[in-house]
Every structure is written in C-alpha cells, then in structure tokens.
Amino acid sequence: MNGKTDEILLEVQDLKMYFPILRGLLRRRVGDIKAVDGVSFFVRRRETLGLVGESGCGKTTVGRCVLRLYQPTAGTIKFNGTDITKIPEGKLKPIRREIGAIFQDPFSSLNPRQTAGSIVADPLRVHNLASGRDLDERVAQLFRMVGLDPRMADRVPHEFSGGQRQRIGIARALASQPSFVICDEPISALDVSIQAQIINLLEELQEKLGLTYLFIAHDLAVVQHISNRIAVMYLGRIVEITSSDELYDNPLHPYTKALLSAVPVPDPKVEKTRRRIILKGEVPSPATPPPGCHFHPRCEIATGECTEHVPPLRDVGGGHYVACFKA
Amino acid sequence: MQEKDLKNKLAEPSTDEETFVPPHHSEWKRIGRVFLRRPISLIGLIIVAILVIMAIFAPWIAPYDPLKTNPLNKFAPISSEHWLGTDQLGRDVFSRIVYGARTSLTVGIIAVATGGVIGMAMGLAAAYFGGWVSAIIMRFTDAIMALPGLILILLISGLVGGGIPIVTFALAFGSIPGNCRMMYGQALSIKQRDYVMAARAMGMSSSRVMLTQIFPNAFAPLLVGMTMALGTVVLAEAGLSYLGIGITPPTPSWGVMVNDGQKFLMTDPKLSLIPGAAIMIMVFGFNMAGDGLRDAIDPTLRGIV
User: Fold this and answer.
1) Contact residues, A window 146-185, toward B, CB-based 8 Å cutoff
2) Which of the residue ranges A165-174, B129-138, B247-256 would you say has the lowest mean pLDDT?
3) Quick one: pLDDT at residue A67?
4) B29-301 has CATH 1.10.3720.10 classification
5) Which CA distances in Å does A53 have to A56, A85, A185, A269, B121?
6) Is residue A297 part of a domain?
7) How many C-beta atoms lie closer than 10 Å to residue A294's C-beta?
8) pTM of the shown model
9) Of B119, B127, B120, which Cα lies nearest the Cα of B145?
10) What's the rounded Cα separation, in Å, for the pair A320 and B224?
C-alpha cells in the first residue's frame, strides 16, 4: 500500500479538444467539431474512474488527450502533480512510461506483422528496460501475468482468439510498469463470455500491481461493476460524476436517468413495472451543438434557462456532481 | 544437489522460469520455407538466379565476343555454331543476350530499387507527419508527374549528358511519384490503426513507428508493383538508347537489341523477338518471385499457403 489512497494521480481541468472542419481549395477553417468541450475530472491513486457515454460523445478523445495522442485545444492535464499538456514530445518519454493504454479492438490494436512476444517487448525496448535474455524473461513473465502461455510468444496476432489478443494488449500496456492505465472500451469488441474473463483479469491486476484505471466504456453494467466512481459524458461534456453506487441509487441528471432505464433488469416483474425513459431525437452534431445545456432538446424537464445558459457541474453533497439546473 | 534440482523441475509446471526456453524467432526460416514450397515462386527465383549468374559470368558463358562483327555471316539462322543465329552485322545473338543481361539487369534493378526506396520514404514521411511536410512532398511529386516522363528524362540528360548512370538515375527519378503516392495512400490509412496509436502512446520514436509499424504493413502491394515496373524500365532504357541518350551503340542491351531488330522484323523477326522474350522472361521471373515473397511475408497466410 504505497502512497495515500486519496492522493490525486490524474487531474484534468477544462479540457477542450476541437477538430477543425476544413473546406475548399485553400482548406479554410469553417468550423470546429467540439469533441471535448470543457471536461474536468480527477482520478485518485488506485481507484477506477469509469467514463461512460454513447458513441461520439468524446470519451475516447478524452483518453487520447490524456495519452497525448492529440494535442488538446485548451485545458490542463496534470499527471502526478506535473502539467503534461504542453511538454514537448521529446521530454514526454518518462511520462509515457507511467501511462499504459489498452485499446478497444484487439483485431486492430496489434501489429499483424509482429510476433506476440515482440509486441509485448516493444515498451521494454523503447524505454531500455531490458535486453537480451533478460528481455525474453520479462516478456515470459508478462505473458504468465495475463494468463497466456509464454510458448505462444512467437505466434503472430492472427493466430490468437479475440480474448487472447486482448490479453496481449494488456501485457503490452503493463510492460513498462505504469501506475496509470487508460482502458478504452477494452471489452466492447469481445464476446460476452470473454468479457467477464478480461474484466476479472483487469481487477486482479489492479489489486496486485496497485494500478489506477480510467475505464472508458458504453456498457453501464460493466462500468458499475469495475468502477469506484463514474463520470457520464454527453456531447463533449461531463453531466454527472459520483460514486458508482450513488449513481445507480440516486441518478440526478435526466440523461443519466435515461441511460440507466435502458439497462435491462434481470427480474421480469420489475422489468414490467418500471418506467423506461425513451429519449426522443438523435444526438446533435458536435459541429453545431445546441446552445445552453447540450442535452436540452431531448430533455423532459428542460426550461427556458436550459436553452440559454450552460449548467455548471455543481456539488450536491458527498462528492456527487451534476450539471443540471433542475436536478 | 542434482536430485533436488530434478525434484524441483518435476514439481513445477513446464512454463516455470527455470525451464522456460525463450522461443526462437524463426520468422525468416518460415518465410523461406513458405516461399520455396510454392512451385511458382521457386520458378521465379530460379529464373532470377539464372539471369544474375548470366550477367556476372558473361565472359565465361558467351561463346563469342558480342561486339565482333562478321560481314560474311549476316542474318545467320539458328544453328549449332550460332545458337540463336547472328544479327545484321554478323554478331552472335546469344553472346549479345548474355552480355545484354548485364546492362539491362543493372539499369533495371538499380532504377527500380532507387526510385522505390526514395519514393516510399517520401510517401511514408508525408503521410506520417502530415501538415506542411506532406504539402511540400506531395506538391513536389505532382510537379514531377505533370511532366511527361520522356520529356523529363530528355531534360535531365540534356542538362547533364547521357550514359548509363544518367539513364538509370532518370528512370529512377521518373518512378518516384508512383511509389510515393502509393505509399502515401497506404500509410495514411495504416497510421489510423490502433497499433500505431499504441506505439506512439508508449513513446516509440517517429522513425521507429514508421519503419516497424507502418512500413511492413504498407509494403506488400508496392513490392508487386515494383517487379512489374522492372519490365517497363528495361524497355524505357531501350527507347532512350534509340534517341541516343542511353547506351552507346556497340554495347549490347536487350532494349537496344529489340529496337535494332525491329528494322528487320519482316525479313528476320528473331532479331527482335529473342531479346523481347528475354525481357519477358525477366519480368515474369521477378514478378513470380515478388508475388511469392509477398505471400511468404504475409503473416495472415501462415499455414494456409
């Protein structure tokens, strides 16, 4: 148990990521896709923060900004107390070693022309952590750690199943011994029978290695299971953050309520009587988001205020934050 | 002591650290095995090998001096004395084919390889870095493409003179845009794959990402294209020699032989058909070998072919 548990490892403040829309011969900027529009959250050491929202809400972009695969338009990302938003790529290497990444699609996250062993060895080679016989041994250790037979190290990704591939991806993410891992929908591309195995493996590894996770997903049931706290995103903004139990027992934001009502309940009696909130309309385009609260065109309880002002993320007590005037 | 070791080994699973033998990365052996097991790629390899041996050992293989004329024995038919007959000056056609392999192979391979390497490097860099790097590189290739190939080569040779090195360089230069654009398109789509993201997220350097992650996955279609380009280049060299820029007349080259023989197509067609067949066999050989190599290095075909 090294480090205080309530110590903040990652702090993101007012993060904005706009992708320019270029048109015409001169590639003039005619607008922006506001993929992430002012997102703030923090992750404590050794906890799991779930980040949920539907496709296109910007949750993957948040993860990629933290990984510095995208250069954010505005805002700060503090990792372990250091602002990493503007560190030049050349000086970023020690930070990169500390942050691992697991990707969604195990069929495109592994280089088809590299052997599994070489894929897992890459972070070790990039950071000069091991070489020669030592490297082989470290790779074998990592294989065993994620439940793979080290003798499979000379096979190529094509020869593995989806679940095995994701295990290789996890071994790669953990090779440089990071303290923080961004899991970008690590199970949504897997068969349901495999999903539980991977979730259990991630939890087991967190326990064993003292990892901190940012767990991005769209499946609420899975997120509730693995997360300590959950942040709900809608169209580039966080609408609600709270502990996962509180979110399920007492959701405050109308969007969160709608999301939760879409999760089927495994009890037919409850399933028959409970109220389902069916959202009307589609998610607006992030290029032309509605003014005020992004959710107001689809909201049941929206009033005039919601169409004019952006509701701030306010504390309603007990670490429960919600961005809604009415809640 | 020994007994204890043995006991330990028996008690622990086979994947234990002590007994674990790191796998040997025998990817090259596997590629070789897959390549050689297919008859078509094996035939290609044999053709290429024969041509290369012919070029290197030309003085020992050729029965006659390829430059020696014999006015008394012009247009000789195929015979045991002259295997492929003689040409309009009484020179032995077989000897000229053997010596011609030197010029044609050298010009062809060097031009295709140089143009390929430069073009691919440019396309890779343009796709990876994007922005102004891509703008400069792609506009430059557009500029090369805008000039008709022949005019471009005439321009270069007009500026710096003729000769084999210049012709080779000019032909290489002309093949840069094609390779560059093809690699650009391939690399642009591969750059978006998650494994490239993963490599960047772990802190891998740009050059290493390009060489180990993008290039191996973008190379296959270009390899086949390059083996096809070989034939075009050998014929283009002939065209240039015809215009007096390339090879100086007595030096044998397959392209020049096709051109010279063309004047006697009605009376003695073998004079252009034989070197033509040689070019065809060469392209076929390289193409089959290239095709086999592409399949052999494709990991998704493991165990299938």
Assistant:
1) 149-151, 153-154, 156-159, 169, 172, 176
2) B247-256
3) 93
4) yes
5) 8, 24, 11, 28, 41
6) yes
7) 26
8) 0.82
9) B119
10) 60
Mean pLDDT, rounded, for B294-304: 72
> For residue A72, which phi and psi values (nearest 5 degrees)?
-60, 150
Q: Are A70 and A61 spatial neighbours (Cβ–Cβ below 8 Å)? A: yes
From residue B19, alpha-carbon distances to A235, B22, B298 in Å are 54, 10, 32
Q: What pLDDT is stored for residue B301 in this prediction?
A: 67
**Chain B residues whose beta carbon lies within 8 Å of the beta carbon of residue A153:** 22-23
pLDDT in tens, B159-210: 877 678 888 888 888 889 999 999 999 999 999 899 999 999 999 999 999 9
Closest Cα in chain A, distance from residue B200 (Å): 7
The answer to whether position A47 is within a domain reads yes
Query: Would you call B194 and A108 a contact, using CB atoms and an 8 Å cutoff?
Result: yes
In a domain, A261, yes or no: yes
The DSSP string of A17-61 is EEEEEEETTTTEEEEEEEEEEEEEEEEETT-EEEEE--TTSSHHH
The total number of structural domains that make up chain A = 1
Q: Are A255 and A280 in contact (CB under 8 A)?
A: no
Domain coverage including residue A163: 8-322
DSSP codes joined into one string, A249-294:
HS--SHHHHHHHHTSPPS-HHHHHHSPP-PPPS-PPPTTSPPSSST
User: Is the model more confident about A141 or about B23?
Assistant: A141
Domain-located, residue A255: yes
**Cα-to-chain-centroid distance, residue B32:** 18
Q: Where do the structural domains in chain B lie, given as residue ranges?
A: 29-301
Element (H, E) at A229: strand A229-234
Mean pLDDT of chain B: 81
CATH number at residue A186: 3.40.50.300
> CA neighbours within 13 Å on the CB side: how many for A289?
23
Query: pLDDT: is B64 or A81 the higher one?
Result: A81
Which of A 72-131 lie inside 8 A of B, CB atoms? Answer: 92-93, 96-97, 99-101, 103-105, 108-115, 117-118, 122-123, 126-127
